Automatic annotation (TrEMBL):
One Gene Ontology MF term: phosphorelay sensor kinase activity
Residue ranges constituting the Histidine kinase domain according to the UniProt record: 254-464
The protein, known as: histidine kinase
The protein's Enzyme Commission number: 2.7.13.3
Enzyme class, first EC level, given as a word: transferase
Transferase found in the keyword field: yes
CDD domains in UniProt: HATPase (cd00075)
SUPFAM superfamilies referenced in this protein's UniProt entry, alphabetically: ATPase domain of HSP90 chaperone/DNA topoisomerase II/histidine kinase, Homodimeric domain of signal transducing histidine kinase
Organism this protein belongs to: Aquimixticola soesokkakensis
Record carries keyword Cell wall biogenesis/degradation: no
Gene: zraS
Keywords assigned: Membrane, Phosphoprotein, Transferase, Transmembrane, Transmembrane helix
Amino acid sequence: MPRVASFLNTLSGRFLILTTVFVLIAEVLIFVPSVARYREDFLLSRLERAQIASLALLANDMIDIGLEDELLANAEVFNVVLRRDELRQLVLSSPVPGPIYATYDLRDAGAFTLMGDAMRVLFDPTNRVIRVIGDPVKKAGLLIEVTMETQGLRVAMIDYGLRILALSAVLSGLTAVLLFLAVRSFVVKPVRRVVDAMTSYTQAPEDARRIIEPTAGVRELYEAELALRTMQTELTSALRQKDRLAQLGGAVAKISHDLRNILTTAQLFADRLDASEDPAVARAAPKLVNSIHRAVSLCETTLAFGKAQEPPPALTGVRLSDLVADVIESERLAIDDYDLSFAEDVPATLVARADPEQLYRVVSNLVRNARQAIMATGKSGEIAVVALETSDEWTISVSDTGPGLPPKAREHLFQPFQGGTRKGGFGLGLAIAFELIKGHGGQLDLQDTGAGGTTFCIHLPKAVAALEAVVE
């Protein structure tokens, strides 16, 4: 019994059930009209026999009672009325065993009426006396009517119905089996193949040999297999990339750990440069110390990122003019004598609520990307940083006159190792910048890009800052 229940829960089992139901419906649709048609033919044959019997009386008005009873018995009726005109009726009669139960006029009966009358006779075992009216054969009168019993009619209908059921059952069963085998071959087996391919793939998604190869002959199933292959291919590639990223993350974390120790030592020596009497050293020492401090902070952040955790921003007041000036001054050291100019439009009194180290990394990444894009063209250019404040947010835009972003970079803009904006780039800078701004509750957008240059815009909302001000 459990096996039967398990089979009926499969696609083949459900289709078998549906096939059986549809075959039964087809049986009913075949059986009812056929039996109704047989009943009509049966009654018409009785009318024809009765008409033939009445013709004997037409030929000879004087026939004995025995011959009349024989004619009626041969026609299997009790009475015959043949109306040839309005003035004359020819009648054959014998005793009727009971009252007339119903009258059926076959001259204008519709299909549904015939089927309803046939079903009532078939399912009523009581022997009834009925009157049947019809048209005479070859228009030999106006009408003919007979009185007869239903028992013989019902027995003949049951016999005919059983033969119809047997024949239709054989034909329907054969059709159902052929249809079941065809659907099983063209639908169920391909679906089972797709399910088996998915099950096999889930066991080892990194194994490209388990990716399904579309072979279905049915177009819809073939399209489903194509979609499944595309999904499996992309998923396998993504898993391989994530595995490589995990390995790279482990390596970077180890390097960052050792590099942090080295930079910490360098920071100790750099601190001593503050006491130097050399004016040039005294001017460069604070910048050197700040650069080493940022490098140490970056190593620590990389270690945290390797744990899939970006440290939450430590929000404080940041004077944007000082931050932007520091970024631009650092970038000027990298251009040497290259014809590249910097422009900044940042109000001196503009103070934003942000993490200074993280915001410096974001602006520095954007400016550095712009510088590298312009220098890669070998042409002169300009980088502009503009900061504004509205009632809802602070915005910082970084624009350049470079060649614009390539299509691949625009498609995977903030995805690591896919959204590189220049040849040889890995797209890490934009990915990190996007995540850092997102940690502030803000947004980093590509505002415009094309042959005339590229503009990125940083949006830092004030809502969190306002909430903190209320709490304080």
